[in-house]
């Protein structure tokens, strides 16, 4: 490996990719930008009769703003600080962000006990979840984790999902797969299960799927969360690290550190 490790990054081809490239360059890495996600808008907007509305991405925040969606007294929830920041940048107030920036973290925070079931709060009453009996609207992509829907339903919520956009693979993706197959990739930062799947689809189209997986075995593979690790493992990709926080900056920092520490 050279003094400047090559690091594949799969963010959508917008300001997120630009920021990711700049972030990696600041850490003396050579970014290999290879967008594995593109957005197809559905034109849908969140329902307005919910008690809670949940947003899971920056893209979703921008799309609802473009569509002119207005909250109607709902508790607005964001899955993490990036989504919360995007919502606030569009002029929305954010009422709730979980401590753990994942679907399971959001389920855990909204499912925490709020008050006893009895109005008197007598001893022995079972605590009720915060969303028990509430209407929860989840506005996200077509590839959202079922953990969020199932977890909130288990907590007693009436859950409705609105698909704001679909995530598809760009037709020109795959440069990083070719580099991996050639043994020229030092690291990869997978930010979702879908980026793993699309990477392997792009490799398969080129007839280099197994070679690309072998190339990843010789690189540092970092992922943004446990679901992404599970997807990678299911497809035969060994994961070296799961980011300690579900943000790209933490993922990129820890991945680059793992590459350089292994020299």
Task: Name its key features.
about 260 residues, Rossmann fold, 2 domains, five-stranded mixed sheet, 12 strands, about 40% helix, elongated
Number of domains in the coordinates?
2
- Average the pLDDT over all residues and give the rounded result: 91
Strand order within the widest beta sheet = 2-1-10-11-12
Approximate shape:
elongated
Indicate the percent of residues in helices.
Answer: 25-40%
CA-atom Rg in angstroms: 20 Å
Strand content: 15-25%
Stated plainly, the CATH topology of the largest domain is called Rossmann fold
The first-level CATH class of the largest domain is given as Alpha Beta
Assembly type of the shown chains?
Answer: single chain
CATH architecture of the largest domain: 3-Layer(aba) Sandwich
What does this structure look like?
This protein has 263 residues and is of the alpha/beta class. The protein has two domains: 6-37 and 170-261, Rossmann fold (3-Layer(aba) Sandwich); 40-167, Rossmann fold, CATH 3.40.50.10090. The chain has ten helices and twelve strands. The protein has helices spanning 15-26, 58-66, 81-89, 103-110, 146-154, 175-181, 193-205, 209-217, 226-234, 248-261; strands spanning 6-9, 30-33, 38-41, 52-55, 75-78, 113-116, 127-129, 135-141, 158-168, 187-190, 220-223, 241-242. The strands form three sheets. The chain has a five-stranded parallel beta sheet with strand order 2-1-10-11-12. Strands 3-9-8-4-5 form a five-stranded mixed beta sheet. Strand 1, helix 1 and strand 2 (30-33) form a beta-alpha-beta unit. The longest helix is centred in the C-terminal third of the chain and has 14 residues, at 248-261. The termini are close together.
């Amino acid at each position: 490996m050279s003094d400047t490790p090559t690091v594949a990054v799969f963010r959508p081809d917008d300001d997120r990719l630009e920021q990711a490239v700049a972030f990696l360059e600041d850490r003396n890495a050579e970014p290999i930008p290879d967008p594995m996600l593109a957005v197809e808008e559905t034109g849908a907007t969140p329902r307005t009769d919910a008690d809670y509305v949940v947003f899971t991405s920056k893209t979703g925040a921008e799309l609802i703003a473009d569509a002119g969606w207005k909250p109607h007294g709902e508790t607005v929830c964001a899955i993490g600080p990036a989504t919360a920041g995007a919502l606030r940048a569009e002029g929305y107030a954010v009422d709730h962000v979980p401590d753990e920036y994942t679907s399971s973290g959001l389920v855990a925070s909204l499912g925490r006990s709020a008050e006893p079931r009895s109005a008197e709060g007598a001893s022995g009453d079972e605590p009720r979840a915060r969303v028990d009996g509430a209407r929860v609207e989840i506005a996200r992509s077509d590839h959202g984790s079922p953990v969020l829907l199932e977890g909130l339903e288990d907590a007693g919520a009436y859950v409705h999902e609105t698909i704001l956009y679909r995530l598809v693979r760009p037709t020109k993706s795959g440069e990083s797969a070719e580099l991996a197959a050639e043994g020229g990739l030092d690291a990869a930062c997978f930010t979702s299960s879908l980026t793993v799947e699309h990477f392997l689809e792009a490799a398969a189209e080129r007839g280099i799927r197994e070679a690309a997986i072998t190339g990843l075995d010789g690189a540092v593979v970092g992922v943004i969360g446990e679901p992404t690790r599970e997807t990678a493992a299911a497809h035969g990709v060994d994961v070296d690290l799961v980011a300690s926080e579900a943000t790209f900056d933490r993922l990129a920092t820890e991945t680059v550190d793992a590459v350089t520490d292994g020299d």
